[in-house]
Amino acid sequence: MKRLAPVAFATLLVACGSGEEVLVGSTVATGSTGSTSTAVSAPPDEASSVSLPTSEPPEPSFEPTLGEPVDLGDLADGEPVDLAVRPGATPTSFLVLRGGLVVRLESDSTVGEVVLDVSDLTRAEGERGLLGVTFSDDGSRAWINHTDLDGNTRIVAFEVDEEGRFDETSATEVDVIGQPHANHNGGELVLDAARDRLLVLTGDGGAANDPDRLALDLGSPLGKILAYPLEPDGDAGPAEIVAVGLRNPWRAVIHDDVLWIADVGQGQWEEVNAVPLDQLISAAPVSFGWSALEGTHDFNDDQTAAHAAFVAIDPVTEYEHVEGRCSISGGAPTTRASGTWYVFADFCTGEVIARCLVGCGALERTETIVGKVPEAVAVLPDHRGDLWVLGLGGALVPVLSDR
Question: Euclidean distance between the first and final Cα of the chain, in Å?
């Protein structure tokens, strides 16, 4: 098995909680001991070259906090799950609600017009619903990822007018992906504009432990990154598999031509993967390891050989299910003078976490607890690059920093 070392980036769901918000949290070295530390293992290729702090961690140079939540009114019941940016002359952000609505966010961050309603085509239950939206580079087209009333994944394209409204009569089906179980539907889709392709990230088909052994099987579209080539008119061609070995990728973003993916773990480890977009090619798909591995740890022994047939991509970071943490909600990197920080959340604890990953010197893998948002399902950038935390219970909370 060929293995790619983690990329050098220096150049580069449970009832709502109490709602208590911690605006400023603590900073810990993720390899240190003590009641406030989080047990984290470094990727194998980094472990021998990076010394984790063993004493009092240094003061962070990136100290974000949480701002005041946006009042979503009646829309809060729709369950926010994604934040989509429409490029163009006037870039705009849109809030995606699992119940089937896409809503414009105004320049003052208040909620605006509903631009798409597919609530009659999906059900927000379990891990199903309207799960993701992305726009073309000129903002004239959009694609959505939703489960239908039978629970299968549908990728649908729409034409979009100058105000960002979706023309529902233009709906064109790009793909239908059968789902053998109710969970692990993934839901993310991103535009790789430089290569004229739509990337769709799929879960492994659900249940638990990859029972059908689909994630590493090139005969299945599940547990994969699928690339749909885009024609000049915006139509999408047949999918090509460019990566395997995903379990339940939940939110992914492109940053400096690198795709960052938060992949929800099985029972012990949560992971973050990062892969340069030019390494995602159908002629030589890469593997993130599931279900031969959970993070960097052995899992299904009968999948070891299947994983070894691909070029391996190791996680850039992972964390263990301790102190209530149990499910990663991605997540976006931000490059500071001190290095590249990845800001994400854990759904179970509601913690919003900033972890320094690359080019951080003594801060390497140090993390800052930014605050808490109950049922945090995503941390994503808006059209200005500012980060927001989305809570399934209806929260939309800005991450404030010194940028």
Answer: 41
